[in-house]
Amino acid sequence: MTCVTGGSSAAHVLFTWISAFEILQPKYCLFRGQYDNNQNIRNMNFKTFNLVDKINATGLDNTKWNIYIHLDETDTKEFYGTRESYRLHPGIWISVVEEKNCDFPFRDLCKPDHVVDIDERYVILFYEVD
Asked: What is the pTM of this model?
């Protein structure tokens, strides 16, 4: 029996090879129903990561925020039940419900793209993400 004291272990070499192999593999795109190469894969941008991180850090539960993919223009009055109508263009939107007079407003942590009243007490903060 020999003891290897230097260099890379077989497990390390195998792990490195598997990792490199997986990076080079084409990924399946759910939206187009086909394989994409890595150059076409979109990664989460900083704005999206920061927003999700702040939602997690503040402890908002799923009754206070949601995420939707709107394929067509969406009227906030019809879809979200807001007092006024605002048209959201197609895209991925995160919405956060917030009290107007809260001590630590979420909008101070992350500036929303749009703010729309639900009623006299609450607003919905809209963030376009990708």
From this structure: 0.66
